[in-house]
Design brief:
- The complex is a heterodimer of chains A (170) and B (385).
- With 170 residues, chain A is of the alpha+beta class.
- Chain A is 18% helix and 26% strand.
- Chain A is built from three helices and eight strands, in the order ααββββββββα.
- In chain A, strands 1, 2, 3, 4, 5, 6, 7 and 8 form an eight-stranded antiparallel sheet that branches.
- In chain B, the strands form two sheets. In chain B, strands 1, 2, 11, 12, 13, 14, 15 and 16 form an eight-stranded mixed sheet that branches. An eight-stranded antiparallel sheet of chain B has the order 3-8-7-6-5-4-9-10, covered by helices on one side.
- Chain B contains nine helices and 16 strands.
- By secondary structure, chain B is of the alpha+beta class.
- Classes of the chains: A alpha+beta (170), B alpha+beta (385).
Chain lengths: 170, 385
């Protein structure tokens, strides 16, 4: 009936579609809880800007994801994701298979404002001899350089940042 | 030294909260849900006493044509004609009477003048929003308003030029109404509860709760300032607090609460947000030592717990996390995809092709993995739908 001008008209009834019912038991939220456990207690919670961090769970039938922060990223960008008290931040992404809770992909990008960044990645689908399945990018070596690593977890990355980068004792 | 953390079950009513002041308080105020621009008709050309006229009623479409395209609103049309068949009055209104437009020919150069009434209070939300979005085009964009009769072929007649005049304060109030209706629509879409435009626009608590619910359903996380809160402690815990007060002069704790269910009154409806977890990094006990000692010595046997009061230290905020929010739906996935397309200035199709072909620009997108996964999710959700 309408050719343009109104978002409501374009989306029509889809705007009124009732949401799915409760998803309290979904594994994405459970995974978020696991990461929150690292952030929740002192002394780490004191090293977070605002005392907490927003982590988004998204659950679908075949897979689920958790993520923190989005948008362009670099030394000059505004912090998003898990933001630490010194202004540095962690952008976090994990993708899991719903059927068996197998980890499919991850990306943990830690950025120091006006400074270096490190990014741990799991790229199973893209793995080749030149592209290790688990690897680390360091900004000073350039994005093409992938240093092989073992598999790391979000919890380990958070603890590493707290202890080695933003700890009050460093 | 890390503070001792208390993990407790609690209830929403145990907390005395300050209004959300700085945490995305999206709606500052609510204008009244009524707009009436009739006062300009000091010299209305018609009077009740004038000669009777013929009236024809039909269903029509009002069409606002602007550079952005056509926007259409189905209306009921009442046309009054003088006995000489000249137009006396063109009246348009929708079934819910949310919008009422009257046009009168002035006779001066074929021009028309109009009356406008918008009535949103208590009206079905879907229609109130549809009308207000249409009205937004009428007063906000350049173009023309016409009426289309469902004849074969359809016949379209010009009514007036756009934008229709509106005073600055009224335009601002209209935009606030539109913003409020969109917020209520979002709440309806996400929670299934239809909250209609309220009569009492001074209901500050209702508005604060609407802002709270919006934050909760959008991110699942609300940061709130609380002035104080209460928790129940068993006798052993009270003794521990007494010892701390005596030895250190104060008792400090971090708190982690589990709330089984939170509900908020948004104007005349209750919104159930389900279970939540609340976290506060530092709070100081404000219940006096004397009061706790009195309870320990005078309590009856059946009094197993004592309620003590706390206040946040240095305005430490309360973080509230809702287990069931935000919900993932096709609409939310589409919204995120559009956001990525805007941020990275390319379409999802182009991005996906670039990613699959291992093009560096696509692989360098920081949100690439999530973008690709959302495309996968959209496919999955579309198939399910």
């Amino acid at each position: 009936m309408v050719s343009g001008g109104s978002r409501y008209w374009k989306l029509g009834k889809s705007l009124l579609r009732k949401p799915e019912v409760s998803m309290t038991s979904d594994p994405a939220r459970a995974r978020r809880q696991e990461l929150w456990r690292v952030l929740r207690y002192g002394p780490y919670n004191k090293l977070l800007r605002g005392g907490w961090a927003q982590i988004k769970p998204e659950y679908f039938r075949h897979f689920y994801m958790i993520s923190a922060g989005k948008g362009r990223i670099g030394p000059e960008t505004e912090p998003t994701g898990v933001i630490f008290s010194d202004g540095s931040f962690l952008r976090l992404f994990e993708k899991w298979r719903s059927r068996d809770n197998a980890l499919l992909e991850y990306s943990y990008h830690y950025q120091v404002p006006n400074g270096v960044s490190v990014r741990y990645e799991m790229d199973s689908a893209a793995a080749t001899p030149d592209h290790p399945e688990y690897h680390l990018h360091i900004s000073e070596l350039g994005d093409e350089c992938r240093l092989p690593t073992g598999r790391v977890s979000g919890e380990e990355i958070l603890q590493m940042i707290f202890e080695q980068f933003v700890s009050p004792t460093t | 030294m890390a503070l001792k953390q208390e993990d407790v079950s609690s209830q929403q009513g145990d907390f005395v909260a300050a209004p959300l002041a700085s945490n995305g308080n999206l709606l500052q105020s609510l204008p009244n849900g009524f707009y009436d621009k009739s006062e300009t008709f000091d010299t209305e050309p018609l009077r009740e006493s004038q000669e009777a006229s013929e009236t024809v009623i039909r269903s029509v479409d009002l069409i606002a044509s602007t550079s952005a395209g056509d926007t259409t609103l189905p209306m009921i049309h009442e046309a009054e004609f003088w006995p000489n068949d000249k137009v006396r009055r063109l009246h348009f209104f929708d079934e819910e009477k949310t919008l009422d437009l009257d046009f009168y020919p002035t006779g001066a150069g074929g021009r028309t003048e109009g009356k406008t009434k918008v009535q949103l209070v208590g009206k079905p939300l879907e229609q109130a929003l549809r009308t207000t979005e249409f009205f937004d085009v009428l007063v906000g964009q350049t173009g023309e308003l016409s009426v289309q009769f469902p004849n074969e072929p359809p016949e379209r007649l010009h009514l007036t030029e756009l934008p229709m005049s509106i005073s600055e304060p009224e335009f601002a109030a209209h935009q606030d109404r539109l913003r409020s209706l969109r917020a209520l629509q979002e709440v309806w879409t996400e929670t299934g509860v239809e909250v209609r435009y309220p009569d009492n626009t001074e209901d500050r608590e209702g508005l604060d709760n609407l802002n709270f619910v919006l934050k909760a359903i959008r991110s699942g996380w609300v940061v709130q300032q609380v002035t104080d809160f209460r928790t129940d402690f068993p006798a052993s815990g009270i003794r521990e607090l007494c010892d701390e007060l005596q030895s250190r002069g104060e008792a400090l704790r971090a708190f982690y609460f589990e709330i089984p269910r939170e509900t908020y009154r948004v104007f005349n409806k209750q919104i159930d947000l389900g279970p939540s977890r609340r976290y506060l990094s530092t709070a100081r006990l404000t219940t006096s030592l004397e009061e706790m000692v009195w309870w320990l010595t005078e309590r009856r046997e059946d009094q197993t717990t004592f309620s003590v009061q706390w206040e946040p230290v240095e305005e430490a905020p309360l973080h509230i996390f809702f287990d069931q929010w935000p919900r993932t739906s096709l609409a939310s996935v589409e919204r995120d995809l559009r956001e990525f397309e805007t941020i990275y200035e390319t379409t999802s199709d182009v991005f996906k092709r670039g990613w699959i072909e291992r093009e560096t620009w696509a692989r360098d997108i920081p949100d690439g993995k999530r973008w690709l996964s959302l495309l996968e999710a959209r496919k999955e959700l579309t198939q399910e739908t």
